[in-house]
Design brief:
By secondary structure, this protein is mostly beta strands. It is 10% helix and 42% strand. A hairpin with a 5-residue loop joins strand 13 and strand 14. The longest helix has 21 residues.
Length: 302
């Protein structure tokens, strides 16, 4: 342990790489949903959003069937790239709601890359083209409960100029602009039952697993403790079996009210990442000095 510490001190580097928070919002200081960073995407006038500073961001599906309500924001001015094996990005949503236990819809979530054209306007009803049409990345829908209807599914978002602007729900996208990840369909019977007026967290993680592909995991917890649901799948549709997408600068989340009404209150969102540092040439030189120091200490003791 002393030798390891000596190397770390010699290199001037920490012993471990820790995850860091790169974006957070508790919706207490935003002035309006009509200004950055948040934009609203609704599939119907019966789906809407309202900002209540100090309370949360309310997402409402008031009536009708098959209504989706989403919020989208650019969390980084420069895309964060998962370049090395072990790099990951986690998007966490803290929420509570009503109507989930009686609805057969689900939660929507995504990590995407704007390709340099972030959202610049709110939208109501399905639209095509526009700022978000070329977004690429991953998204999923997580069913609210065990009632037959909505199973949990994960997708890659392929983008394209003709793609509908909805980011996290496949039925509103143009065919061919999204692809379901192989094996990423989990029966509704495996879902937990989300109760009304209860605090939950949804964590959505993309992990670079090298030539084994990108591992996509979604976890729902009661508060921050008890795990209620956990789903994992792997995207290996990229070159050589790696993941298809590794750069992200945009988050999307919301709800799909299959039988409405269903309402969510979002109290906080957070993006964390763990990126392996890339050693500079000078660092390699310091590593050599560190090993030389260990040799000298060992010889002195002899």
């Amino acid at each position: 342990m002393k030798r390891l510490s000596l190397v770390a001190l010699t290199l001037g580097m920490p012993l471990a790489v820790l995850a860091q928070t790169v974006y957070t919002d508790d919706f207490t200081t935003d002035g309006s949903l009509a200004t950055p960073p948040w934009y609203n995407i609704s599939s119907s006038t019966t789906a809407s959003a309202a900002l209540n500073p100090g309370v949360g961001l309310a997402l409402t599906v008031s009536s009708g069937t098959g209504r989706d309500q989403q919020e989208v924001a650019q969390f980084s001015g420069t895309p964060i790239t998962l370049a090395s094996v072990g790099d990951y990005l986690t998007f966490t949503v803290h929420f509570s709601g009503t109507g989930m236990a009686a609805d057969t819809g689900g939660l929507l979530v995504g990590l995407l890359n704007t390709q340099g054209t972030p959202a610049n306007a709110n939208e109501v009803t399905t639209a095509t083209g526009g700022a978000t049409a070329n977004d690429t990345g991953y998204f999923g829908i997580m069913g609210y409960n065990t009632t037959a209807g909505t199973s949990t599914k994960f997708y890659t978002r392929q983008g394209g100029v003709a793609a509908a602007n909805e980011l996290g729900y496949y039925s509103k996208m143009t065919a061919g602009t999204f692809v379901q990840i192989t094996g990423a369909s989990f029966p509704a019977a495996g879902n937990a039952i989300l109760a009304d007026s209860t605090a939950y967290t949804l964590s959505y993680t993309i992990l670079n697993n090298g030539v084994s592909g990108n591992v996509i995991t979604a976890v729902i917890k009661n508060g921050a403790n008890t795990t209620l649901d956990s789903w994992t799948s792997t995207d290996n549709s990229g070159v050589g079996g790696a993941g298809l997408y590794n750069s992200f600068d945009e988050i999307a989340f919301g709800n799909y009210g299959k039988a409405g009404p269903v309402n969510l209150n979002i109290t906080q969102v957070q993006v964390t990442d763990l990126i392996q540092p890339v050693p500079e040439p000078a660092t390699f030189a310091l590593a050599g000095l560190g090993m030389l120091g260990l040799v000298m200490v060992r010889r002195a003791r002899r």
